[in-house]
Amino acid sequence: MNAPWTSVAADSGNLIPGPSGPFTLNGREPLAAFVSDQASLACVRACLVELGWNSAGCHIGAPDDAVQALATAASPAILIVDLSDCTVPLEEIQALAQVCEPGTQVIAIGQTNDVRLYRALLGSGVHDYLLKPLSEGQLAEVIIGAQAALTAPRPVEAVQASQHSIAAVIGTRGGVGASMLATALAWVSSTDLAQATALLDLDIQFGTGALSLDLDPGRGLIDAIENPSRIDGLFMQRAMIQASNTLSVLAAEAPIAAPAPVEASTLLHLAEELGHACAATVIDFPRAMLPTMAPFLAEVNTVVLATELTLAGARDTIRVLDWLKFHAPHARVVVVANKVPTGLCEIGPGDFEAAIERGIDFMLPFEPRVAIQAAKHGQCFAEADRGGKLGQTLVAIAWAVCAPGEADGQPPAMRTATTLLARWNPLKLMDHLIDQFRKAGPGPTAKSGG
Ligand SMILES: Nc1ncnc2c1ncn2[C@@H]1O[C@H](COP(=O)(O)OP(=O)(O)OP(=O)(O)O)[C@@H](O)[C@H]1O
Ligand SMILES: [Mg+2]
To answer: By 3-state DSSP, what share of the chain in percent is helix, strand and coil, each rounded to 5?
Structure first.
């Protein structure tokens, strides 16, 4: 699965004798259940007896009762909740996610036989959904599946093993510069870091990834979304637009009237194929996709959160950070304040950081001249402002985001480049660039408005 409960999955998912009870699973109570009727309760208990598990954590109750119980107690490894009496089941699941510790596998049960609900529940991180009346055999199968999910390697581990770094750039609000940032990071990754890089623009109707690099997006991404079963190495070769030898773009200009629905499973498939061909993938990830793409976000190493230093920007940064805490708890989050003006900000950096209860990692100045230059020449901002403050900071962000986890600690550029950079430790280079920017700041506003 699986969003709110993924990442702390398991060092050991086996049932082992616990100190006080008969078993623990990953150091927790193995299972708790809150079901709405006696027949379901009897079925859950009988199933647990059959599996040899303790059934003391099974109660008659609604999701609200589960929320109350988990707000003050440790979460079980597996949680069964009954959505039968819920008018908005997804809201109940969200409420649970707020109190449930990461790693819990949630099995929902209910009476609504609707594939859209089923998909939405899986999309929000639920392990499985079972229709009532429950059958012991089916329930046992799902519980064993949940136990197996706890023992499976974490998605992020699989990604790291394949050396493919995936970064999703998300704007907290419209127009904050998320697409500018995604395109620039992909470009720097492909040039300064000299590694095969893909830019995946998921804003399939209004994306600007291809446009800003002066490319025609073609139909590749649309074909992939419409026929996910066709995605393979050969398909990707044809679908990707080559911006250079090391930069490929997968983007679209889908018709406004009939957007193709994007499934999380399609993106997982795409990411897997991109991992075969690229060292880094940068995704322009529209925030409107967050609710349905939680399973995909579990594959992402880094989320770059682009924002502006405004009241609305602060509110939505808090909301997205909160969402990520539960749905992509393993992902490193890098907060980038963009379009920081040289005069007064609506909210100064200090106040902004106090509001979001964490630091801003990078600040990018508002530079309309660079925007004009970039648009005129079909360049990304990093290229249009090479050597400038904005350009240098984009390079620093790309180092932090696209080359953080090489197995031997050496990003590809360091293995092959013959320039002075080749003799530098990449981490030191990154620190140096970050220091340089932080010392300079984006003009008088940096930290002074707070
Ligand atoms: N630091 C900056 N200085 C000047 N202009 C900028 C800066 N960053 C972005 N822009 C400009 O702001 C506009 C919006 O940027 P962009 O399209 O990247 O935002 P977005 O967050 O992707 O928007 P959307 O929500 O529509 O997807 C663009 O015209 C871009 O050139
Ligand atoms: Mg955009």
So the answer is: 45, 15, 40
Report the pLDDT value the prediction gives residue 17, as an integer from 0 to 100: 40
Q: Which fold has domain 15-152?
A: Rossmann fold (3.40.50)
Please give the CATH topology (third level) of the domain spanning 156-440: Rossmann fold (3.40.50)
CA 379, CA 390: separation in Å to the nearest integer?
14
Give distance in angstroms: CA of 30 to centre of ligand 1.
Answer: 48
Identical fold between 15-152 and 156-440: yes
Q: Is 208 in the pocket of ligand 1 (CB under 6 A)?
A: yes
pLDDT tens-digit series, residues 284-296: 999 999 988 888 8
Q: Are 184 and 59 in contact (CB under 8 A)?
A: no
* Cβ-contact 119, 144 below 8 angstroms: no
With beta carbons less than 8 A apart as the criterion, state whether 23 and 30 touch. Answer: yes
Q: Is the CB of 367 under 6 A from ligand 1?
A: yes
Residue type, 407: A
Give pLDDT, residue 430. 41
Q: For ligand 1, is residue 63 a contact (CB within 6 Å)?
A: no
CB of 364 shorter than 6 A to ligand 1:
yes
Give 104-127 pLDDT, tens digit per residue: 889 999 999 988 888 778 777 788
